[in-house]
Design a protein that fits this description.
With 368 residues, this protein is α+β, with helices and mostly antiparallel strands. The chain contains 8 helices and 16 strands. Helix 1 packs antiparallel against helix 2 (30-55). The chain is extended.
Length: 368
């Protein structure tokens, strides 16, 4: 929009009119100098106007302007959250509010139902990498506390939702007729919950009035239990212990009482996606100075990014296939490799087609 309203084009139009009137339009003339500044100002105005238009339409809005577009349709950006860990201790039980640190990160002790947890003080993914068993060092001395450490990560921290993910959710709601409890509506509900990267909806999975949401975390891997529980509570709280059988597994379903977002009578089940572990092996010719370890690390990062893209960006209803050819293309692009051969997934030279409940998770990379 307004691409042709540049300084050069505006000046050309003005000079053309001046020439038609017999005015001296040479550079340095009174006419030329008097209109040059005006044309520059008008061109700047058009550039600002084009930017303003970009900021108020959904495909190009960014930042706070995209937030405003989301508000129009009742969709808010997912905010950053803090990592939460189990807390282990020996001796006197500390009180909530105490501060601990590990790996240059600070955590605060919280009490939930009498159980203590460690929450990262800073939001985002930076606090997600404390290994279980790492010492939790109190900032201030706690009398009677003889030892304290981190347990398992039970709720990973997430970054503030980026513009493209947020825009995609808005567009899906607008383009997918998300209303009246249809399939798209369930997907939208799931993906409104913090920590959810993608949801796959399986209608009638255990008969009439049953809906399953397969929950994938924002990292492209199966969502952790805390995230799945938040989805279940939001859409259809499960307080009565109702269960159904699905592919040989017992699945807890919601009460169907309309106490969440779902309609009365609809029994919803939130489940974490299942890991499909894939080990990758290949032979390689390395560039001078590179090691097999270097290549394995580069390949692991590239393949994990590919698996994440498959989990989060595949088209709705598309059969997700992990392809040998795609991984091969990724290997060719790595800086430590000249050529490769004998590329295998789990020992076989075949693509892997995933079920709707599965996501690919890299088990390891072996360079032969």
């Amino acid at each position: 929009m307004f691409e042709d309203r540049t300084y050069v084009n505006l000046m050309a139009e003005v000079l053309e009119k001046g020439s038609a009137l017999g005015v001296d339009i040479r550079q340095g003339s009174i006419f030329y100098d008097s209109v040059a500044g005006v044309c520059q100002k008008i061109a700047s105005f058009y550039a600002d106007l084009a930017t303003a238009f970009d900021l108020v339409i959904l495909p190009t809005a960014v930042g706070e302007y995209l937030d405003q577009k989301g508000y129009e349709y009742g969709i808010t950006r997912n905010v950053a959250t803090s990592a939460r860990y189990e807390f282990r201790y020996e001796g006197t039980k500390p009180t909530a509010g105490g501060r601990f640190f590990a790996d240059s990160l600070y955590f605060v002790l919280v009490d939930i139902g009498g159980v203590l947890f460690l929450d990262a003080e800073k939001t985002g993914t930076g606090g997600n990498y404390i290994a279980s068993g790492t010492a939790a060092v109190p900032v201030n001395t706690i009398n009677g506390l003889t030892a304290s450490s981190f347990g398992e990560l039970i709720d990973p921290g997430i970054n503030t939702e980026d513009d493209e993910s947020y825009r995609s959710r808005i567009q899906e709601k607008l383009g997918g007729s998300a209303e009246n409890g249809n399939q798209q509506h369930y997907k939208t509900w799931c993906e409104e919950v913090s920590g959810v990267g993608r949801a796959r909806i399986i209608p009638l999975f255990a008969g009439e009035n049953t809906v399953m949401g397969v929950i994938i975390g924002s990292n492209g891997e199966p969502a952790v239990e805390a995230v799945v529980e938040r989805v279940q509570e939001y859409i259809d709280p499960a307080t009565k212990g109702l269960t159904v059988e699905y592919k040989g597994n017992t699945v807890t379903i919601g009460d169907g009482l309309g106490n969440g977002a779902a309609n009365i009578g609809a029994h919803f089940a939130a489940v974490a996606a299942e890991n499909y572990l894939i080990s990758v092996s290949f032979s390689a010719v390395l560039v001078s100075g590179a090691s097999q370890q270097d290549l394995a690390e580069e390949a692991s990062e590239a393949i994990q990014d590919y698996f994440k893209e498959l989990a989060l960006d595949a088209s709705e209803g598309e059969n997700v296939v992990v392809r040998i050819s795609t991984v091969g293309s990724l290997l060719y692009a790595l800086p430590s490799i000249v050529d490769y051969s004998s590329l295998l997934f789990n020992g076989l030279p075949v693509n892997i087609e995933l079920e709707s409940t599965q996501v690919a998770v890299l088990e390891g990379v072996e360079v032969i």
